[in-house]
Amino acid sequence: MENNVVTTMPRIGEKAPAFKAVTTQGEIDFPKQYEGSWVILFSHPADFTPVCTSEFMAFATLQDKFEELNCKLVGLSVDGLYSHIAWLRTIKEKIEYKGMKNVEVKFPLIEDISMNVASKYGMIQPGESNTQAVRAVFVIDPKGIVRTVLYYPLSLGRNFDELYRIVVALKTADEFKVATPADWRPGDELIVPTAGSCGVAQERVENKDLKCYDWFFCTKNIDETTIMDKIKK
Predict the structure, then answer these.
(1) Which residues pair with 214 in a beta bridge?
(2) Which residues are catalytic?
(3) 37, 43, 188, 221: which one has the fewest Cβ atoms less than 10 Å from its Cβ?
(4) What phi, psi does 208 have (nearest 5°)?
(5) CA distances from residue 5 to 42, 77, 80, 153 in whole angstroms, order as listed
(6) Which domains does the chain have, with CATH numbers?
(7) Cis bond leading into 31, ω under 30°?
(8) Torsion, CA 124, CA 35, CA 29, CA 103, rounded to 10
(9) Contact between 120 and 134 (Cβ < 8 Å)
(10) Residue 2 has pLDDT above 50, yes or no
């Protein structure tokens, strides 16, 4: 039988596709009602599954850390609202994992039985499943622009330290007009945008705040406290 699932893929730098939906926290108008905040919109394959359960416990446990970055969490699967509610209640009342227990999920979980939202965000990957969303992650900035896109297969749980690091790095890049190198963590050297000419590069070499290895590779240090004080608002 021919597959009729249409997969669209929102791209980095584009407006996040708009939608209205019912969630475990009431109706939402996305991304309009989140203007002024960062958002992580993420999907999971199904309620009452073990990998998804571990992920929701991790997200709920880290919610306050994301809130400190002015970053909201919004989840989605193609299950119905009553399934969502029952699953989240079960997580709180029965599941204990890696020291996490009595975990209450307070962020909204979207009902998407029609797959309308999942289709808009390319969460249905026919090569993986026609009936479940893959583990998609969209980091969306306060202007409603998609800044990061990640897709994971059904079998692979996400790294939540990395999701947190992504938001910190994006906010740091915006606030300080820098780029973040491989494996960057707050307090590590930051990349200064390319000088563009040898003359500007020479000026940078003479700037004691910068370390220049060549005209295209200059770094500077900003301490962790300065960064976190700036981006936590």
Answers:
(1) 217
(2) 52
(3) 221
(4) -65, -15
(5) 20, 16, 20, 17
(6) 19-159 (3.40.30.10), 177-231 (3.30.1020.10)
(7) yes
(8) 70
(9) no
(10) no
* Inter-residue contact 23 to 109 (CB < 8 Å): yes
Q: How far is CA 31 from CA 121, 188, 215, in A?
A: 13, 33, 40
190-192: strand order across its sheet: 190-192, 217-220, 210-214
Q: Cβ neighbours of residue 139 under 8 Å, at least 6 residues apart?
A: 38, 39, 40, 146, 147, 148, 149, 163, 166, 167, 170
φ, ψ (nearest 5 deg) of residue 96: -130, 125
Whether the CB-CB separation of 10 and 145 falls below 8 Å is answered with no
- pTM metric for this prediction: 0.91
**HEC readout, 49-115:** CHHHHHHHHHHHHHHHHHHHCCEEEEEEECCCHHHHHHHHHHHHHHCCECCECCCCCCCCEEECCCC
User: What digits encode the pLDDT tens for the residues 44-97?
Assistant: 999 999 999 999 999 999 999 999 999 999 999 999 999 999 999 999 999 999
The per-residue pLDDT of the chain, averaged, comes to 91
CB neighbour class for 65 (10 Å; exposed up to 12, middle 13-18, buried from 19): middle
Please say if the pLDDT value at position 208 is more than 70. no
Give residue-wise pLDDT tens across range 8-50.
789 999 999 999 999 999 999 999 999 999 999 999 999 999 9
Q: Phi first, then psi: give them for residue 85, nearest 5 degrees.
A: -60, -45
